[in-house]
Structure formats: C-alpha cells, structure tokens
Amino acid sequence: MAKILIPYGTTEGQTARIADYISDVLQAHGHEAETLDLKHADHDLPDGYDGVIVGASIHAGKHEGYVADFVRRNREALEKLHAALFSVSMSADADPEEAQKYVAEFEDATGWRPAKVALFGGALLYTEYGFLKRMLMKKIVSSQGSTDTDTGRDYIYTEWDGVRRFAEEFVADLERKPAGE
Ligand SMILES: Cc1cc2nc3c(=O)[nH]c(=O)nc-3n(C[C@H](O)[C@H](O)[C@H](O)COP(=O)(O)O)c2cc1C
Q: Which of 38, 107, 144, 151 has the fewest Cβ atoms nearer than 10 Å?
C-alpha cells in the first residue's frame, strides 16, 4: 500500500473536486490518499509519503501563485518522490496547445519538471460566479466562438474517466518503480 498526498490550489472549486476524485480512486485501489488545500497556509511537504500529485487551475493564463510557491519551496523533496502534476483549465478542453503552454510556463517558473503531467478540462460555473465574473466569462467564451453562454446553468468539461485513468496509471507506475529505485 502506498501513501499519496494530493496538494492543490483551486479558485472556484473544480480542482478541489478533481483532487477528491483522485483520492477516492487511489483509496478504492487500496492506497492511502489525502488531499491538502494549499490556499490557507505555507505548507511544506510532510515526510512519509511515497507519491505526490500536485493540482492547480488556470485563471488569466496562470496557475495559482501559491501553488507555484509551494512547488518552489518543496522542489527538492518533489524530485525525490514519485510525483505528477495536473493542470485544470478551459483550454485543456478547447485548446490543448494553450493548456500545454501554461504548464511549460509553470515548469519554467518553478524549475520543477514532473515526470507525469495531465491536462484536465475545468468548469464554467456561471451559477456560482458573482455578476462581474459571470459577464466576463460569458464574454470570453463567446469571443472564442463557443455557444456555452447560457448563464443560467453551469458547464462541466472535466472528463472523469480520464481523471480515473490518470490516477490508476500513477499508482501502477509507483508500484512498478517506487521512488528512489
Ligand atoms: C476569471 C476566470 C479566468 C479564467 N481564465 C482562464 C484562462 O486564461 N485560460 C483557461 O484555459 N481557462 C481559464 N479559466 C477557466 C478555469 O481554468 C476553469 O473555470 C477551472 O475549472 C477553474 O478551476 P478551479 O475551480 O479549481 O479554480 C478562467 C476562469 C475564470 C473564472
């Protein structure tokens, strides 16, 4: 049984949902998994984990700064562990090249080059946004030629099967080649 930490950043909650889902998949496979919301403290990576899956979402072209800070502070420890990154954005669904660019910028900014990276579609949560954010997102979305502009509902782009496969591949790799070997 492996012990895996899932530290994440989230602004509207979709990355937290994905982190919880990954944790559930890992536990269903008999592993110990915990999520850690990085927003509220200057966390350092605790000892005792076999693997780490870092998650962050994109706003205005950038991942949460506090996730980048966490990765910079803990880069050496991350490099010694079996570690992966998942990046949540609209572009992961609509424009994967752009989503890949966000990750390349994150890697340059933090100096961390995770062996495994996943790009997951996020969500447009019109019903939860305040007025200005709702109007801004509707404008951006329609300027991109999308028809997902009904602000009376939400749009979820996360493909949960892909998230499950990512989590399963992560533990399969970990079982095959534990960190340090
Ligand atoms: C104000 C705002 C700005 C956003 N900017 C981008 C962006 O520049 N590129 C992109 O691909 N997605 C963008 N998104 C989409 C988010 O990445 C998506 O909603 C994601 O699900 C947010 O994850 P979170 O709920 O964990 O914060 C933006 C969303 C909001 C609300």
A: 144
